[in-house]
Amino acid sequence: MSTKWLRWLAARLAVCAPPRRRPAGGQDSRDPARMSFALRWRSPWQGWQGVSWLASTLLAPPFFVIGVLLLINAHSDCPYFWPSTMAVIALTNILAIVDVNQRHHRRPFASRLHVGLRYFGVSLLAGGASFLMLVWGTGILQDVIGPLIPAGSATHAPLPLSTAQWTIAAAVAFCVLSFTHACVLHAWLAFEAPTWYRISRGTMPPADASDDPDTADAALQIRRGRGRP
User: Fold this and answer.
1) In percent, how much of the chain has pLDDT > 70?
2) Distance of CA 225 to the CA centre of its chain
């Protein structure tokens, strides 16, 4: 008798018990709000990639300032340095965009922060190396920092070290001014979060995604999880 009663009680408790939830680290394909999401390219992706490159290049302070000064007066002691600097900014942005897209194609990014860090890392290496070669090739830094170095140190060892320090500092400043904004712009202009993720965060009404067959099921699951009919 007691055994039957215990079996009956265990069956009732199993029916009344809430469904077991998976650990926080696990992923449940039936709950889109808890799944790890991946960014996707904003559509049409070619147009947004072009807009991102154009905005990142034109809004770079060195590109903008050099372009305005060249329009005012194109004569300079280093006629090849300034246009080449503008070309370095444009080409580095192209290289960073291509690298980010290839990385996203192989393993999609999970957040815009990862996109920005990848973009800035590539632009820092490529842009910094190109700017260093341009500075050393034209020798323009000698004309700029020459008055700042004491005249009596021309035959001593600290001169090359000081020149290298100035060159590296100029390259770092150039990269920070030219590409910091670019990584943020590209992360927000070229990529977007999945529609169901925006619904779960409350940044997009579910009604706006009703025409999207890829996200209809996800929106329904999210509404059911919140207790909505």
Assistant:
1) 61
2) 32
